[in-house]
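TASK: fixed-backbone design
INPUT:
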């Protein structure tokens, strides 16, 4: 309050004068007397002055501690905000990478199953694998070291499996191409057989027999009939081979996808953890086992139905 401040000021004036006098006297006395004189001078300071000094000191220390605590809090908060922003940017980047990667893996799996029905020379048939490789490369770029390592294993396993599927699908398509060639030759021979039969019928119905011409027509008829029969048999053989290879391809693909999923599941769990979702590897393994069992049962049913159908040779006969 103003009255207390005025009173302290009035007390400080004689105190300053006393200290100045004592200081002058101290310079003229021996050291021990100086020390005693300083102690006496301090003892002469009024209690009110000591109270004011103590209050000011406590205030200063409190302010210092408070400012230090506030500074530490601010530093911690800024560091936390910075780390949070980095984590959010990283999560957004990974989300933009991981989701398309999972989609690319599923699409590639479907493409491997459909390879025998695709034109392998068409660039679209090869584009799916290129998209898969690009997506996995991004996962390796932004993922944690463990996730990047798992992505590398998935890329290697799926890549080698895709190449083997392409080779097997190429063999199936080659057998189908051979069957198509034989089918064209069969149709050409059949056209000749029909033409010769028409000419032989016309000759018989003309009323002017020509044994030599009829013999020549009959020889040609026998030749092209034999050609048609041979081409039909060759066509049926290639079709049966292609069918058997197709069934084996289906079985091999299901088995291979089962082993690929074993490699894929740890990557799924790692990605879910990085995106902040829960994921238990054993849970996904049990779910995969159920799904695989259902798929295998369906494939076995398809194969049984295909084997029960009449072969191309029996239909031709």
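OUTPUT:
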């Amino acid at each position: 309050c103003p009255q207390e401040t005025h009173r302290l000021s009035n007390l400080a004036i004689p105190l300053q004068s006393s200290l100045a006098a004592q200081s002058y006297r101290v310079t003229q006395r021996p050291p021990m007397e100086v020390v005693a004189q300083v102690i006496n001078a301090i003892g002469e300071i009024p209690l009110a002055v000591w109270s004011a000094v103590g209050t000011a000191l406590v205030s200063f220390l409190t302010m210092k501690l408070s400012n230090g605590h506030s500074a530490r809090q601010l530093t911690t908060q800024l560091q936390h905000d910075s780390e949070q922003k980095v984590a959010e940017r990283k999560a957004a980047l990974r989300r933009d990478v991981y989701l398309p990667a999972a989609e690319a893996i599923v699409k590639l799996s479907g493409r491997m199953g459909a390879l025998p029905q695709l034109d392998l020379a068409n660039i679209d048939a090869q584009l799916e694998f290129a998209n898969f490789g690009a997506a996995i490369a991004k996962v390796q770029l932004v993922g944690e070291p463990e996730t990047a390592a798992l992505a590398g294993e998935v890329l290697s396993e799926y890549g080698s499996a895709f190449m083997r599927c392409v080779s097997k699908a190429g063999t199936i398509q080659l057998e189908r191409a051979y069957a198509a060639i034989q089918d064209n030759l069969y149709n050409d021979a059949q056209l000749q057989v029909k033409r010769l039969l028409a000419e032989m019928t016309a000759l018989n119905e003309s009323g002017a027999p020509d044994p030599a011409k009829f013999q020549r027509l009959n020889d040609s008829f026998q030749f092209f009939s034999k050609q048609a029969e041979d081409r039909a048999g060759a066509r049926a053989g290639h079709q049966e081979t292609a069918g058997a290879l197709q069934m084996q391809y289906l079985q091999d693909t299901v088995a291979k996808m089962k082993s690929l999923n074993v490699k894929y599941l740890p990557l799924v769990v790692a990605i879910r953890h990085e995106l902040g979702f829960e994921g238990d590897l054993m849970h996904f393994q049990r779910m995969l086992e159920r799904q695989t069992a259902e798929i295998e049962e369906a494939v076995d049913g398809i194969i049984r139905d295909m084997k029960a159908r009449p072969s191309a040779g029996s239909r031709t006969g």
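COMMENT: The longest helix spans residues 47-114.
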